[in-house]
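Customer escalation, tier 2.

The customer says the design service returned an amino acid string that "doesn't look like it belongs to this structure." They asked us to rerun it and document both sides in this ticket. The original structure tokens are below, unchanged.
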């Protein structure tokens, strides 16, 4: 069986990537979303083990010591990391695993696993980004400002990604993301088993 693909979805805070992920999971079957660990406080409605594994800084540091993370990074005063075991299990079982993570972590993963598909989500304009970030009403003004500053830095590095998804309309964006992942499966690098198999069959024919 072919291994699953590792897909990273990053985007500015307020780009709508959370909504895109939710719809992608509802609409298509073969995707598994990795649940991250974080030291930030849960927002209203967020459930431990579903949206995040909420950890103290000590627990998070212990996981680093145990080499339990595929990657981890700091983001606006808190730590975030991807637990390794769940990702590996699902990739080995042939499922595509999606990491919704910020840029520093994304680049760590790409360095270690160059075959990772890297997608960056952005609203069509900066004004729209600010509107969405304020509109969701989950952060204080101070945090909104810090997240917008972070977006300025992230914009400089968008070019390191494989694809940019402009989130104008959620359903269209979800379908585009699905198509990108499916196309990645067809890349020759991800078809090694198929190629070996057909070569073997053809060689056998020759021998007859
Ligand atoms: P939020 O606090 O809005 O849920 O997430 C803040 C940022 O952290 C987002 O850009 C999100 O994609 C990122 N993030 C969430 N989980 C992880 C993770 O496991 N690793 C890294 N590097 N970033 C993460």
């Amino acid at each position: 069986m072919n291994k699953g693909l590792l897909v990273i979805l990053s985007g500015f805070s307020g780009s709508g990537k959370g909504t895109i992920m939710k719809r992608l999971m509802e609409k298509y079957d073969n995707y598994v979303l990795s649940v991250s660990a974080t030291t930030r406080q849960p927002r209203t409605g967020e459930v431990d083990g579903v949206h995040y594994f909420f950890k103290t800084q000590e627990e998070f540091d212990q996981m680093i010591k145990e080499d339990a993370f595929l990657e981890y990074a700091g983001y606006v005063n808190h730590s975030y990391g991807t637990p390794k075991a769940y990702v590996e299990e699902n990739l080995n079982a042939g499922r595509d695993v999606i990491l919704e993570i910020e840029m520093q972590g994304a680049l760590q993963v790409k360095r270690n696993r160059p075959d990772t598909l890297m997608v960056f989500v952005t609203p069509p304009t900066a004004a729209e980004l600010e509107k969405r970030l304020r509109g969701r009403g989950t952060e204080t003004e101070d945090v909104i400002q810090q997240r917008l500053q972070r977006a300025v830095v992230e914009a400089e590095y968008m070019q390191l990604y494989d694809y940019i998804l402009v989130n104008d309309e959620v359903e269209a964006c979800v379908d585009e993301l699905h198509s990108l992942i499916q196309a990645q499966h067809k890349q020759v690098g991800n078809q090694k088993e198929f190629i070996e198999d057909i070569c073997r069959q053809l060689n056998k024919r020759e021998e007859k």
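Tier 2 assessment: The sequence is consistent with the input. The pocket of guanosine-5'-monophosphate is lined by residues 13, 36, 40, 71, 73, 75, 80-82, 100-102, 104-105 (CB under 6 Å). The longest strand covers residues 69-75. Sent an explanation to the customer and offered a walkthrough call.
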